[in-house]
User: Fold this.
Amino acid sequence: MITPQIPKGFRDFLPEKKIIRQQIIDHIRSIFETYGFVPLETPCLEYAETLEGKYGEEGDRLIYKFLDRGGRAVALRYDLTIPLCRVISMYPELVKPFKCYQIAPVWRADKPQKGRFREFYQCDIDIIGTASVLADAELMSIMYAVLTKLGIANFTIHINHRKLLNAVAVSAGIREGEVTTFLRSLDKLDKVGKETVSGELKEKGFSAGSIERAFAIIEEAGTSDNHKAFLEKVGSLIQGTAGGEQGVAELMIIREALEAQGIPERGYCFDLSLARGLDYYTGPVFETRVETPKVGSITGGGRYDNLIGLFCKTPYPATGTSFGLERLIAVLEEMAGQDTRLSKTQVLVALFDKSLLGETVRVAKMLRDAGINTEIYFEADKLKRQLTYAANKSIPLVVILGSDEFKNGTVALRNMQLGQQEIIAQNDLVHTVKERL
Amino acid sequence: MITPQIPKGFRDFLPEKKIIRQQIIDHIRSIFETYGFVPLETPCLEYAETLEGKYGEEGDRLIYKFLDRGGRAVALRYDLTIPLCRVISMYPELVKPFKCYQIAPVWRADKPQKGRFREFYQCDIDIIGTASVLADAELMSIMYAVLTKLGIANFTIHINHRKLLNAVAVSAGIREGEVTTFLRSLDKLDKVGKETVSGELKEKGFSAGSIERAFAIIEEAGTSDNHKAFLEKVGSLIQGTAGGEQGVAELMIIREALEAQGIPERGYCFDLSLARGLDYYTGPVFETRVETPKVGSITGGGRYDNLIGLFCKTPYPATGTSFGLERLIAVLEEMAGQDTRLSKTQVLVALFDKSLLGETVRVAKMLRDAGINTEIYFEADKLKRQLTYAANKSIPLVVILGSDEFKNGTVALRNMQLGQQEIIAQNDLVHTVKERL
Assistant:
């Protein structure tokens, strides 16, 4: 006999979990489609060379890699962005801008720990083929719509711009080639605080003067309450740097678009300390932080105008964001408490009298044809046992066909929560069931 | 630069394909739920030992296997049945009968050819924990409902019973231990004909007499037009064999249940030559064959009362069927012809006048809030280019905000198919768009 077990860091989703996951995914999909996004699916396995060298040294180590039977190195998908870039370069016929969503599992051979798995879902939306920041603004509007419609209220979308950040770094005296290294440390400001970041930067060899000047600019800009005034102030601080001015101008357009979408000022902020770790971002970057429950960032993304260039000669400007589906589900589960469902069945038709087998099946069919989720109990067990089954699966209504009642053209309908039973005409069953649900 | 390509036998589903797949899957899911089935999801990776030795020698060779970073042998899921058996034994708390569905990809390192892929979806429904053949009959009803509701008309569900087949074999003089080997050849009768099967059986060492006797019983039984009369005749042919009598009695109940479900007699047949290759079936076996288009079997399954016993001591009777989702999709695509959709967008709001950016976004929001799938064009390109985009993506309506019209409280609505444009009040836009769609 084989011990039934699954590899560490992997999960089974039993129905009560899977029902919730499926509902959330369906809901998110329908919102994406309202904005004209279409679904895309890529294979779980890619050639290893497609993935390698894209996620940094540590990322590369976490790729599940192996040789296929033909001896070629293949790998399980590590994220959804690189496969998308491969798709864009393989199928130049796709109409641009190409607006797509992907909701699919990815794999990372990471150390499993609470909330971190080796197989988990990502949920990405991307817009390929336009440099317009209206596209970035649209992604933010969608983040806002998704979270709001899921009932999450206390969140803020943090927005920054890589060109603006570069301008800040350069204004502080950091050389062009070192800006990325600088930003990677700066990205931790929110989590670990100024002193730790400052220490790390000094270790990396940045001068105390540069570090101080960069912090001074960020602090002088403050945080944005009045977003328009904030952007004007930042504009004056980085005046004269071409990239910085472009960054501020683009953030201004984003602000205008978000306002037109009816997103309140408290729903987002411009945050000069937001860097987003990945090297490949080139324009606006954004992430959403949820305050209660305090789970940190729940979406993250940005513009990556040069990434597709790794696969083809046509430069496709692109922007995208990822929803942390696993965290989103965790938040919603916490909000819902114990309100999980063991089934979606609405009516159980008991098999009370074996001689009425055909009639029992017919009644179930009648209910299903009316769109009511209906189960038949498969064995002519004692009624008590059949009711226990309904109770265990939280099925609200049970229909019982007794032979006497049946001859009179009636059935018994039992309300499991009230423990009450009523005798109703068979012709009224569908109608009455719909009323009682 | 990396050449963008995917491993052989793997596929990208671009939006026009993925939209159809998603619609079919959603439709099938909703039918399963009407019958009280709940979704289940297992990891893509299992320990290799969980899968090995379950699929026969050839099957084992096709498993994608590799060592994880901890040096343990893991494997990509080969089907959905074995992971389900593992789940049942790992979580004894699951309420029985446990009725679940799974729709998910599986992997087989097979030689790719037309219609055969290394990564493909399976769609399974299973009922665990009841020996009642009403469960088997329910699976058949669901097959019937799914195919009918998908618009497939010319199909027949072929039904047989392993115990009845055993009785036929034993009646023909074949020894108990050799029945499985015998049935594996018999299973090909429909595809390759009597002579080839007979030849293969002789090669395997079965006596000409036994083979003839087996064929004689199958032929004498004929095929079922009048199902009840057929089963009575078969009953008389195998009289005296305990298993055979049980088989016929169970098929009788299945017939009664199918009739009660309103399934016409021509929708199914009892077919003594149906064996279903897999060794693990113990009771009713069934598959659906589609006649036009001639694609062969599109669902297949049966009762497997002993399989879960490989993982745990509790014997769980079980029955299940698999829908050949890939074939189903191929059939539906053939039926639909070229009617594929490049997008689900209903309205494009053109960005005609840059100074009206905010208003353009607001109009799009108004349409989305009314449940209309709406895109904004992201750049203030020439109108002709924006209309070309709408045409390329088959978006039926385009809203254009000109500054003069806008001041008068109107917008232009263009019907792409008719090439006509009308001026309407902004307040009437949602209403008019819904009328025009």
